[in-house]
């Protein structure tokens, strides 16, 4: 430019998006959270393979089901009850007990962390996932009216960004400044595209960080600077002051202080606090449900055994009567 010059950059304008965090995962299945699917499959495979190996070494003195149940019980910290057979293969069972102890301790430690720290479902994390969600119709994406975000999306080289821009332009998904202050366009299914600095200003307070997720994926990054006259005499001094301001963190402190003021000006329903809570019956519902399922299976097995042996006894009695009748 012939007339206007710029100072050194004092901040970055990073365009990203924000949405409310998705609710907690159901606690009914929290007992499975400490390990992923591959670990559970590997653990079951290890128990089955070890059971077959021990059966091969023992011969037919023990059944496969008995060995499997004994090895499984050792993983849940129950003693092995295989009699004198353990003494004959101390090395094999010592290795298995070490493995079972490590698995049990890792599971217990991980389960405790899942009980004390809430587990959240994984939300949308980048613009590719956002574009896919908008195309699927599960989410809506809004931009501030008058900004160049949609034209930037339409001129992008990335196909998913172009599709996102076309859908937003077709539905006219815009919002104004008053709606930005109210936060009416941020929910679990409604996404707001804006500068990360604006999100830090309106949702950067600690209480808001528990409720609003700001993506780490950036659509574009622009340096921010001051426009000065081409013949401005104190440009070097201005750059020195801006550099000191940036290095001292005063600019971010100002944003944080203003964010606190905005937070106090809103109603308490607009944000969520992270208060420590005691474990309740809902948190332990998975363990209680597992207990009732185990009892139900045990009672059902007992009833089947009673009916089976009762019918078997009747058959034996009828056979004895029939043989006695024919002998006479």
UniProtKB/TrEMBL annotation:
The keyword Transmembrane helix applies. InterPro entries: Insect_Ionotropic_Sensory_Rcpt, Iono_Glu_rcpt_met, Iontro_rcpt_C. It comes from the Eukaryota. Belongs to the glutamate-gated ion channel (TC 1.A.10.1) family. Its main location: membrane. GO terms for cellular component: plasma membrane. It is a multi-pass membrane protein. The chain crosses the membrane at residues 37-58, 91-115, 284-308. Keywords: Cell membrane, Glycoprotein, Membrane, Receptor, Transmembrane, Transmembrane helix. It is found in: Cell membrane. GO terms for molecular function: ligand-gated monoatomic ion channel activity; signaling receptor activity. Residues 60-294 form the Ionotropic glutamate receptor C-terminal domain. L-glutamate binds at residues 148-149. The record marks 124 as: Crucial to convey clamshell closure to channel opening. It holds the Pfam family Lig_chan. It comes from Araneus ventricosus. GO terms for biological process: detection of stimulus involved in sensory perception. The lineage of its organism: Eukaryota, Metazoa, Ecdysozoa, Arthropoda, Chelicerata. This is Ionotropic glutamate receptor C-terminal domain-containing protein.
């Amino acid at each position: 430019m012939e007339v206007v010059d710029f100072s050194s950059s004092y901040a970055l304008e990073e365009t990203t998006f924000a949405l409310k965090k998705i609710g907690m995962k159901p606690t009914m299945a929290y007992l499975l959270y400490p390990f992923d699917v591959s670990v559970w499959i590997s653990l079951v495979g290890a128990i089955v393979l070890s059971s077959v190996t021990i059966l091969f070494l023992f011969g037919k003195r023990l059944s496969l089901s008995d060995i499997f149940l004994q090895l499984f019980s050792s993983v849940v910290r129950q003693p092995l009850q295989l009699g004198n057979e353990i003494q004959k293969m101390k090395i094999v069972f010592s290795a298995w007990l070490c493995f079972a102890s490590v698995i049990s301790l890792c599971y217990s430690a991980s389960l405790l962390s899942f009980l004390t720290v809430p587990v959240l479902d994984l939300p949308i994390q980048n613009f590719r996932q956002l574009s896919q969600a908008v195309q699927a119709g599960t989410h809506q994406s809004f931009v501030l009216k008058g900004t160049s975000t949609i034209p930037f999306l339409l001129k992008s080289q990335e196909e998913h960004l172009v599709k996102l821009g076309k859908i937003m332009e077709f539905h006219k998904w815009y919002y104004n400044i008053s709606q930005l202050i109210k936060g009416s366009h941020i929910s679990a299914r409604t996404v707001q595209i804006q500068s990360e600095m604006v999100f830090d200003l309106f949702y950067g307070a600690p209480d808001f960080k528990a409720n609003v997720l700001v993506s780490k994926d950036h659509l574009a990054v622009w340096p921010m600077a001051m426009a000065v006259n081409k013949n401005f005499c104190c440009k070097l001094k201005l750059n020195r002051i801006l550099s000191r301001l940036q290095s001292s963190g005063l600019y971010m402190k100002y944003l944080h202080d203003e964010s606190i003021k905005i937070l106090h000006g809103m109603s308490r329903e607009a944000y969520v606090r992270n208060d420590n809570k005691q474990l309740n019956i809902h948190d332990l519902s998975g363990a209680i449900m597992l207990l009732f399922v185990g009892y139900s299976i045990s009672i059902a097995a007992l009833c089947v055994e009673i009916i089976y042996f009762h019918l078997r006894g009747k058959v034996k009695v009828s056979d004895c009567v029939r043989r006695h009748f024919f002998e006479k």
